[in-house]
Design a protein that fits this description.
With about 100 residues, the chain is an alpha+beta fold. The chain has one helix at about 55-65, and strands spanning about 10-15, 20, 70-75, 80-85. The protein has a four-stranded antiparallel sheet with strand order 1-2-4-3. The longest helix has 11 residues, at about 55-65.
Length: about 100
């Protein structure tokens, strides 16, 4: 929400073990993409806004600690897009029967 224009849509899509969040903001500069998950990194457009540059590094560390991956890119309309993948089952039928309540 911080980077999206007022009244724009932030799209959140969950497919299996993949969560994609995309906005309609200015996106992330190509030169900044390799660094957005580094602690304290602030891209040129974010250096004069409120924040510490820790948010995305916390996201990356949390996802990695759970065996997953996160990547940043551009959404179809030019904004930022983040994709998180976590290991595990993607449908209830794959869960062990001890975890699924009996009907």
């Amino acid at each position: 929400m911080k980077w999206s224009p007022p009244d724009s849509t932030i799209r959140v899509r969950l497919t299996g073990n993949r969560l994609v969040v995309a906005d309609s903001g200015p996106g992330i500069a190509e030169a900044d993409l390799p660094y957005v998950f580094d602690r304290f990194f602030r891209g040129a457009s974010g250096r004069y806004t409120q924040g510490t540059g820790l948010g995305l590094s916390i996201v990356a560390k949390t996802v990695e600690d759970h065996g997953g991956t996160v990547r940043a890119g551009r959404s179809a309309d030019g904004g930022a897009e983040f994709t998180v993948r976590l290991p595990g089952v993607t449908h209830v039928e794959a869960l062990p029967s001890i975890l699924v309540p009996a009907s």
